[in-house]
Amino acid sequence: MWERHFNGVTMFYWVVKAVLAPILRVLFRPWAEGTDFVPRTGPAILASNHLSFSDHFFAPLPLPRKVVFLAKSEYFTGRGIKGLFSKAFFSGVGQIPVDRSGGEASERALTTGLRVLAGGELLGIYPEGTRTPDGRLFRGKPGGARLALAARVPVIPCAMIGGFEFQPPGKITPQFRIRPGVRFGKPLDFSRYYGMETDRIVLRAVTDEIIYEIMKLSGQEYVDEYAARHKALQQAEKRAQRQEAASRGKVAATAGKSGQGATASKTGDGSATTDAGGDAAGRARTARAAGAGGDTTGAAGNGRVAGPEGSANVTGSADAAGAASASEQPAAPPEPSIADSAPTTAVSEP
After folding, report:
1. What is the mean pLDDT of residues 217-228?
2. Which member of 62, 146, 254, 305 has the lowest number of beta carbons within 10 Å of its beta carbon?
3. Using CB atoms within 10 A of its CB, is residue 149 exposed (0-12), middle (13-18) or buried (19+)?
4. Per CATH, domain 2-240 is 1.10.150.20
């Protein structure tokens, strides 16, 4: 059952590679170094850093033999047309589904890898366990070391170059100005540790040596932390920042509404004050005008008019006094009267 499935996948792999390889070479001009370090036959493990999704294409592209990768089972369990396309694609590029949830699933993945190596195939693994979140090289997981010691096969370090810039995380369209490359290193022999694949200290030492060789080939900065944990912390930090931004937005919106209400209240009070002030000023001006007129009339009424028979007191209107005055003496500039100072006195009074 396994052999029939594996042979069917192998045939599909070569068909897909025959179609894609010329297209990839023309479009992206990938380069490769150290391909002679990869054995042409026999089982071996190809341990690579993981920069982007494009690594699945450019790592095996320059090699004349098939590379089988262990891929998460979610790639093969989708529904509908998208699910069928995903399953066909990952099968075509040499992926074998494994459950990576841990525990018994990890043991089944190890068993699957041992079957691939027992068939004399080249098994590709990503010791970091997932794609790098920021282009750096992260701490390796011991699964690859267990496979190498249990199957007693060499490990070829492999470094993808430029893949992170070629296809950044979350981007589908590649950057055509970047030429992706791959660099292979000398095979690592861990025969001194054969039979010790259950020793955690040995597994850590082997894993760190593999990661160190990848770092020398890639020139990446090393981070002594698991990439999956780093991603989880980043996602938690982003969620916290989004929640904080949303809270600040709500506070700002609430403050804005309160400010609009206060502005509206001030505007209403000001209008009432202005109207009241205008009415009071109008009433004051009317009162002053009436008082001034009365004073003038009174003054004019108490004035003297000279006649042919001498002066006499005349009580009358301002018009009569003015007419009598104008008939007997020339006009002169009027002197300031009590009415001229009345407005100032009236305003200043309480």
Report:
1. 95
2. 254
3. buried
4. no
